[in-house]
């Protein structure tokens, strides 16, 4: 049975936050605990500096690479109606993707967002309506149709590869 992408994403967040802290608690007072001490310190502004873009009435941010940036994306995600997650699946694992070209068109076919992701997550605030999202990886284009309203929605784009 395949594990759904949202479960993998949740496990990733758990692994990057809770598990290292638990490991640090067990290693306290040992040389190995020094590896985990950085996690106890707050992230610097430079580590969570996300660039906010505005295109055609759509405000969006992309990122999620590294512990601090992924935590900041998670923290602000509730402020955005749309959350996109990009994954590559192989027979043995799932990996997060960055540098994914993304286009969002409105119900009239007008291009409202044309960007390349800076990490595995893209968050967007946009007017209510119907949209088509396309994302490409390794020459394969995926499309998703959705209706945006005030409710937060998460869309996972995943590509299966042979490696």
Helix-strand blueprint:
Layout: H1 5-27, H2 37-40, E1 52-55, E2 58-63, H3 67-76, E3 82-89, E4 94-96, E5 101-106, E6 111-116, E7 121-125, E8 129-137, E9 140-148, E10 153-160
Parallel strand pairs: 3-10
Antiparallel strand pairs: 1-2, 2-7, 3-4, 3-7, 5-6, 5-8, 8-9
Can you walk me through this structure?
The chain is of the alpha+beta class. 23% of the residues lie in helices and 39% in strands. It contains 3 helices and 10 strands. The model is unreliable at 6-38 (pLDDT under 50).
Keywords, separated by commas or semicolons:
single chain; 163 residues; alpha+beta; Immunoglobulin-like; 2 domains; 6-stranded mixed sheet; 4-stranded antiparallel sheet; 3 helices; 10 strands; globular
Brief summary:
The protein has helices spanning 5-27, 37-40, 67-76; strands at residues 52-55, 58-63, 82-89, 94-96, 101-106, 111-116, 121-125, 129-137, 140-148, 153-160.
**First CA to last CA: what distance?**
19 Å
Tally of individual domains = 2
Annotation, overall tally of beta strands: 10
CATH domain class name of the largest domain? Mainly Beta
Backbone CA Rg:
18 Å
Strand content: 35-45%
Question: Which regions contain 5 or more consecutive residues with pLDDT less than 50?
Answer: 6-38
